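Researcher: Quick one. two chains, 573 residues in total.
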Amino acid sequence: MDKFKIFLIPFISVVFGILVLMLAVFAINSIPIFQREGLAIYTENVWIASETPEEERYGILAAIYGTLYTSLIAVLIVLPISIGFSIFVVDFVPERLKEAFIIPTDIMAGMPTILFGIWGIFLLAPFLSGIADFLYNTCSFIPLFSYYNPTGFSYLTAGVLLAIMVLPFASSLIREAYRAIPVVYREAAYSLGLTRFEVAKILLGYIKPAILAATLLAFGRAVGETVAVSLVIGNAFNINPSLFAPGYTISSLIANQFGNAFVYEYMPSALFSAGLALFAIGLVVNIVGLLVLRRWTYA
Amino acid sequence: MLRILKDYLFVVFVIASAAAAIIPLFHILFSVFYNGIPVLAKYGMEFLTDTLPPPNKAGGGIFPAIYGSLTMILLSSLLGIPLAVFAGVFIAEYPNNPLSRAARVVLMIMLEFPTILVGLFVMAIVVIPMGTFSAIAGAMALTIVMLPYVATYTEQAIRSVPRHYKEAGYALGLKKFRVVFSITLKMAKKGFMTGLLIGVAKVSGETAPLIFTAGNVWRSTGALNEPAGAIPLWIYYLVQQPYANYHEIAWGAAVVLLTIFLAIFLPGRLMVRS
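Model:
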């Protein structure tokens, strides 16, 4: 083995070390709560913090529900828009102007998330609260709109904000895939006399795996997002079907509760186990997404 | 007829979704400047050099946050860039090594990883043993966030250099170390710099990994082993306060943060010709 390789090995090992150590830290710190409550930590919706350890009881089901609910809202909004937007940029915008559409979305993909947060809390939440009031007054018989006295801090606000945050990312994956389709397919389709809609439908068929991967990776990002969401979700232990109800997500639960967790015997462990759940959800979604993407790129 | 109608609807859908994608993005950028610039004008230069005022008192600034952000960005760059570059070089130079194959997957996972978990992790291994939040802990969390960006860009940049340049270097009798750092990395400078800038820009705006590592303070002595503020952290806490002047300061801080981010990110992004 050459010297150069030996010199580099410690650095590459650190990369591994971090991930392994991270998993270990979360697993070890979760043990006390698992010993005490078992899997109930994931299947109950309770949050009793108490000075006397015997009375403490934690269950993060509401946060798991909120995480999946808000991320689902985000993906459902992002998917059609990013497909439409990709078609727009590739097929409708002249070559010289394409960069003018791509650079802003790239900026937004890397932008500090707290800026989405401040926009969400001061502008988006009040705006959606008006809409929520209207929908509650007119169609509260539909469970989705049934939450009484909506404040604007809700699953919907979090979901919409997440959608805006992950859209640049999802649309860049779909756009690059759509753009990479060989021109001959496009020309062949047009030469049959098909309309733009029919051509796009055929071409989208080719990049189905990329769309699936983009969906999964966008979902994975939405799951892990913390600060912006914690400012607009309302932070309440709630399991409610209504879009306008306040809730919690796993990451906002951690951000909100960890500050004072060490006063209590079991709360730190409960929050580490919440982190472990987030770890697991993120890992599964991202790995499946990356595998789909990879299989497609090499095919 | 139906086909033409469908096509027409399709065009409407495409244009509508482009609008739906672009408008919120511009609205966010616009409202940060629209709400923040008047604040900067009103507070003057003191905004950058003063500390946080009491609630509902005029004046004040965000100096401790700027100081904290800059020290932690610098510190995490010093730690993270060498680590990430060497890791990237390994993956690029030994692509078929099992370590490299696995590292590529690990880096991709880290790229998508919830950053709040990084913060929690560093808290468990640094903050608890030290007994206090600190700028060092914050910088370590940022290092972990930065690592996958810089490493993957370095790897791709090195792999884009044609082989015969390296072979020419070896033919001159250069050591592998010299070939990589004097020839390959120099030729791949653009991609490499892009990675650095994007990694640092990303880190400059992170909030979640700092909450439980840097801890946040409104006044600081500047010591690295004590809790530190950061611009994103300040915004996060200020918007949750009920005071109007704190909301103002938060908007002002948002403009400062956005400016720092764009100043680092844009040169990096514009170097890439897609």
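Chain B has one domain: 63-271.
Researcher: Thanks, that's what I needed.
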